[in-house]
Each structure stands twice: as C-alpha cells, then as structure tokens.
Design goal:
By secondary structure, the protein is α+β, with helices and mostly antiparallel strands. 27% of the residues lie in helices and 32% in strands. The strands form four sheets. Strands 7, 8, 9, 15, 16, 17, 18, 19 and 20 form a nine-stranded mixed beta sheet that branches. Strands 1, 2, 11, 12, 13, 14, 21 and 22 form an eight-stranded mixed beta sheet that branches. Helix 1 packs across helix 6, helix 1 runs parallel beside helix 8 and helix 3 packs across helix 8. It is globular and about 65 Å long. The protein starts with a strand and ends in a 17-residue tail after the last helix. Bound molecules: flavin-adenine dinucleotide.
Length: 348
C-alpha cells in the first residue's frame, strides 16, 4: 500500500471518478477508497442526461456549460451517445407547461413540437402532443467508473475498503486517511453522507428511486430511444426496456420494494401497448441538499478537507463540470467556488 498521495478521495461513484480524472489532468497524484459492498448509486443510474427535465420542462441554468463539460468528459472515454428523446404530452396540465416554455425552448434549439416514429406511435397510449427534446444523450456510467477504477488500481492507488470517520485525522502532511498521508482529503460519499458527523451540519435530504428493466414481447424501436412519460423515463432498445424512476423522500435505504415495482408496472401497462416481462428491479438513493443544488467546497473549519455531494437526480450531467471547478479550487488557493454550489452557503 502506497503511503502518500496529494489527494485522497473517499468514494468512487460519479463524483469521485470525475474528480479523480480532473485532478490527474492537472498533474495531481490521487488515491481513492471505495467500498463496493456499500453500494454505488451511480452504477444503477439509467444513464440518461438532458438539460430539459421534469413535468414542467425545467431548463438547467447555464445548461450549455453543463452539457459541454459532460459531452467532453464522457466523450474522452467513448462513454456517451446522443439519443432521440420524445416527451409525450398527456392531459391539459402538460400541454399548458409546454405552451409556457415552448418559445424559450425553441429559441435555444432545445426542443420542438414533433411526431413519434410510426412504429412507436402505434404502440403507446395516444398522446395529445409530442415534443422532441433535441439535447439528450445516454452515458455508459459503468464504463466510466470501471475505466477510472482500473486506471487507479493498476497504479496501486485504489483501495477497496470502507473508511471509517475516525480513520481520517489531521497529520503533518495534512490528513492521514486509513494509513495514507495526503495534503487533501475529499469526501465523495454520495448517500453515505447521511452518516457523516464531520458534515452533519449540512441540510441533507435523500430520495430513494427505483427502476425496472426487462423484455418486450416484440421490438418497437430497433435503435435506442428515450420516451419521457409523466416525469418518468422509458428507454427502449430492441426488445429491452428500462423504466423509472420512482421518488421516495427521506429514505436512506436503497431497497427494492414490491410497492414500487407494482406502481411502475401499472404505469407502464397504462402507456405501453406491448406485453412486457420485468426481469430486474434496482433501487438507489439520491443524495440531495435542502435547496436542491449541489454542495462542493472546503469544510469551513478544516483546511484541505473537501466535499463533493448533492448531485440529486442529475448527477451524470452535473458531475463533470463540478469536478472541474472543484479540482481547480484544490490545486489553486486563488480559485473560488460559485456561491450557489459552495457548501459554505449553509455554514452559520
Ligand atoms: C433509480 C435512479 C436512477 C437515476 N438515473 C439517473 C440518470 O438517468 N441520469 C442522471 O444524471 N442521474 C441519475 N440518477 C442520479 C445519480 O445516480 C446520482 O446523482 C449520482 O449517481 C450520485 O453520485 P455520487 O458519486 O454522489 O454517489 P455514489 O454513486 O453512491 O458514490 C459514492 C461512493 O462512495 C462510496 N463510499 C461512501 N462512503 C464510503 C466510505 N466511508 N469509504 C469508502 N467508500 C465509501 C460508496 O460505496 C459509493 O461507491 C439516478 C438515481 C436513481 C436512484
């Protein structure tokens, strides 16, 4: 076990993995700790990203910057592909949301009224309208995480183990993390932040999410397509499908429940006119801050002790840009973190 590094990263989900690469790109020696037994919500994410989301067509502020960073980062690992995305409108409320946003979405070339490919149109509950979301992609998250883990592992810089809070203590080099001396330590723990004492003052919230996957009786989309239906995502590819996710506040246990599976099954039966078989169900917990924005930055009391958390429902889209901001702040004392993401906004 190597006993020194510039930066120790605790947790190698999408937050830790993107940060590890951004730091290495700046010449920083990184070592990481990750506990596979603890679960990684990033590994089960559907992998879909778009700056337009939610029932009300919410557009992420500064969406172009988030999009460019994500495209470049995942592109460098051949882990992203554009995907046709259609939002199906059902009911008056959804039409109203679209009418309110259509001008802005059209001006920014993000979305436009459209029609479904015939083969799909025949097999879904007829919507009152269809909107094509122009900026949408699928990320192969497992490929990203495996690539980063392999890179660190071959250099002896990845330790597959859980780090207890009392194993992180100040030392002359900066921090001693489970026997490794380093100048900085970054907590990228995702939902495990729930148990943190050091960051216990942060207003953390958690939302369990579940999705289902399986096989259709016959294919209606030979190429991958993403249908957005009543706030949920249906991914179709050949005879495979994936559908979700549910939203269950204040739950920190990533457990699959019969209730959520039943809810997703009924909803899918309502909108999809093809028999299907559920073969898999997966649940994870989204780490969220009370103001729904990410939290990155240095602990207000402990120098060189950093956090990268609060990725919520859009972690794959947000992580690459946040990792770049945080890496700059770590390597250069002069860089400030934008106040809306800085964890110190919660400090008294
Ligand atoms: C059902 C579902 C579907 C989703 N789909 C999408 C999607 O399509 N697109 C999208 O952008 N987002 C999606 N998300 C959200 C996305 O998954 C999260 O925003 C993101 O994965 C959070 O990443 P993270 O790195 O913060 O946490 P994690 O991925 O959980 O990583 C944290 C890591 O830290 C490790 N760890 C924690 N504590 C310790 C410790 N003390 N010692 C060692 N290791 C430790 C854990 O084992 C884990 O590996 C989805 C979420 C859910 C629940």
């Amino acid at each position: 076990m190597k006993s020194t590094a510039d930066v120790a990263i605790i947790g190698l989900g999408i937050a830790g993995a993107t940060l590890a690469i951004e730091l290495r790109n700046r010449g920083v020696q990184v070592c990481a700790f990750d506990d596979p037994a603890h679960g990684t919500v990033s590994r089960g994410a559907a992998g879909l990203i778009s700056p337009v989301a939610g029932l009300r067509f919410g557009v992420l502020d500064e969406w172009q910057q988030w999009w460019d960073h994500a495209s470049a980062f995942y592109g460098s690992m051949q882990a992203i592909e554009p995907i046709p995305c259609y939002r199906l409108l059902y009911g008056e409320d959804e039409r109203r949301y679209w009418q309110r946003k259509r001008q802005r979405l059209a001006d920014e070339n993000l979305a436009a009224e459209s029609t479904l490919p015939e083969r799909i149109a025949e097999r879904v509950l007829r919507p009152s309208g269809v909107v094509a979301i122009r900026t949408a992609a699928r990320v192969d998250t497992v490929r990203v995480l495996d690539t980063v883990a392999r890179m660190l592992d071959t250099e002896g810089m990845l330790h597959y183990r859980y780090v207890r809070e009392d194993e992180v203590s100040p030392c002359s080099a900066g921090w001693c993390v489970a026997g490794v001396e380093c100048a900085h330590v970054v907590f990228c723990q995702g939902p495990a932040l729930a148990a943190s004492v050091r960051f216990g003052w942060l207003p953390r919230m958690f939302a369990r999410g579940q999705r289902i996957a399986g096989t259709l009786a016959h294919s209606i989309a030979p190429e991958p397509v993403w249908l957005s239906i009543r706030g949920k995502s249906l991914l179709l590819e050949g005879r495979s499908f994936s559908f979700g996710s549910t939203f269950d506040w204040e739950t920190t246990e990533p457990i699959v429940t019969e209730q959520s599976t039943g809810h997703l099954r009924r909803q899918l039966e309502q909108y999809l006119r093809v028999p299907f078989r559920i073969e898999q169900a997966w649940a994870g917990v989204r780490p969220i801050m009370a103001d729904l924005k990410p939290a990155i930055g240095e602990h207000p009391q402990y120098r060189r002790c950093w956090l990268f958390n609060g990725l919520g429902s859009r972690g794959l889209l947000l992580a690459p840009r946040l990792a770049s901001i945080l890496a700059e702040a770590i390597v250069s004392d002069a860089v400030t973190i934008p106040p809306q993401f800085d964890l110190r906004r919660f400090a008294c």
